[in-house]
Design brief:
The chain is mostly beta strands. The chain has one domain (about 25-280): 6 Propeller (Neuraminidase), CATH 2.120.10. The protein is about 5% helix and about 45% strand. The protein has helices at about 5-20, 285, 350-355; strands spanning about 25-30, 45-55, 60-65, 75-85, 90-95, 95-100, 110, 115-120, 125-130, 135-140, 150-155, 170-180, 185-190, 195-200, 210-220, 220-225, 230-235, 245-250, 275-280, 285-290, 295, 300-305, 315-320, 325-335, 340-350, 360-365. Strand 12 (about 170-180) and strand 13 form a beta hairpin. The structure holds 2-acetamido-2-deoxy-beta-D-glucopyranose (4 copies). One 2-acetamido-2-deoxy-beta-D-glucopyranose binds near residues 159, 161, 162 and 170. Keywords: Signal.
Length: about 375
């Protein structure tokens, strides 16, 4: 047994050590698509990367993206990814994927192709995974943007009736996620109003037929996040007044079922999903009223999940970009347990000048 004095000394030492460590404060990083000329009467601004504290305070523009001399025409943005191993942010913008340091410095365009709707970083493999809108492809590249290769074709067909020069895919990956540990590639198949789905396939699979539909009938699925065995996704909503939500599925119910060939994907998906938050639950958060009195939904664009169980916290950013621009940062915590468990929403910041028109959110320790 440890003598008491030694124990006390050790205790003192450890608390002294702790107080000497620099106080680390976690931050949220936001990708703002910017505001163009249609947004009157709101001030126009360039596409930007912003940071706030996890309380939504101290909002700061850390980098503006796109040409300096043309603030009326921001380049636009779609998705943000944080890479802890390289301390970088990858922003999918109208100019392609732009890498910056975590403080927003040293912006560099890595990939300029098509419209890139989602981006994520596979840390162990050291690759960027991203998805294109018109081709409906998921691709990957080195962290410097070189060696681009197609990983998966998620288009489910190409609509040729638009003409040869612009032939959009029926579906594109509105969200992409790589589970390197278990070897899965997850994506949101986004297209029309209620035909979206969340799918996965083995990362190494060369066989395009082998994929699983985890959830379907979704109105524009976007961001995906995986915490343990729980997969979360954002349902953005196709139109300005569509409902919006964050939902989740417990993947342990999926593991035992056989992989379905994609040709059978029209059959209904039977897995149980849960709603974390739905816009119908809180008009004060999700209904935006513009200067003409018109109503729109503050659509959930991106979210992050930290921790598990009662300690779990989710932050999301929502926006409405109709006549007037609205940006909101909301925190979700859990109250009660079991069937009584209830999501509690708290608006941390709803100043559009602070948040911009947010499309991406990342948490950095
Ligand atoms: C927030 O900003 C205030 C004023 O600039 C500063 O004193 C404070 O340290 C900042 N807090 C954080 C957590 O960055
Ligand atoms: C992707 O699949 C579609 C059919 O679903 C096909 O028309 C298209 O050419 C494919 N794209 C590539 C790059 O192979
Ligand atoms: C293909 O595009 C045409 C023209 O816009 C449209 O009418 C049709 O519904 C589209 N087909 C599908 C399957 O989306
Ligand atoms: C949300 O409200 C709309 C309009 O009232 C309704 O059609 C829809 O079923 C509701 N959805 C949920 C999940 O409550």
């Amino acid at each position: 047994m440890l003598p008491l004095l030694t124990f006390l000394a050790a205790l003192q030492l450890s608390s002294a050590y702790r107080s000497e460590r620099p106080k680390t404060s976690s931050s949220l990083f936001i990708l703002d698509e910017g505001v163009g000329h249609r947004s009157t009467p709101v001030t126009r601004w360039r596409t930007s990367i912003r940071s706030t504290t996890t309380q939504g305070t101290n909002a700061t523009i850390i980098q503006q993206l796109g040409p300096e001399n043309n603030p009326d025409q921001p380049i636009g943005a779609y998705s943000l990814a944080y890479s802890p191993s390289t301390s970088s942010l990858y922003s999918a913008t109208g100019e392609g994927i732009i890498r910056t340091d975590i403080d927003g410095s040293n912006p560099k365009i890595l990939i300029t192709e098509d419209t890139i709707m989602s981006v994520t970083v596979a840390e162990k493999e050291g690759k960027i995974y991203y998805s294109t809108l018109t081709e409906g492809l998921i691709k990957r590249a080195e962290l410097d943007g070189s060696n681009v290769e197609v990983v998966r074709n998620v288009s489910q067909g190409i609509n040729l009736s638009y003409g040869a020069s612009y032939t959009p895919a029926y579906f594109y990956a509105g969200g992409v996620l790589v589970d390197e540990e278990k070897g899965w590639l997850y994506w949101s198949a986004s297209g029309g109003e209620h035909d979206g789905s969340v799918r996965r396939a083995a990362l190494k699979s060369q066989d395009q037929e082998q994929e699983q539909v985890l959830a379907s009938g979704i109105n524009l699925p976007g961001q995906l996040r995986l915490v343990g065995d729980t997969l979360f996704w954002a349902e953005i909503g196709r139109w300005g007044d569509s409902p919006t939500a964050i939902k989740r599925i417990d993947l342990s119910q999926v593991r035992k079922s056989p992989v379905q060939p994609s040709s059978t994907t029209s059959s209904p998906v039977a897995y149980a999903t849960q709603t974390v938050v739905h816009s119908n639950q809180s008009a004060s958060i999700f209904v935006a009223i513009d200067y003409t009195g018109g109503l729109s939904t503050v659509a959930i664009q991106s979210f992050v999940v930290r921790g598990d169980g009662a300690e779990q916290k989710i932050w999301f950013v929502g926006m409405s970009a109709e006549r007037t621009m609205f940006g909101k940062l909301v925190e979700i915590t859990w109250k009660g347990s079991g069937d009584e468990e209830k999501a509690e929403l708290k608006v941390l910041n709803q100043d559009t000048k602070d948040l911009g028109v947010p499309v991406g959110l990342e948490y950095v320790d």
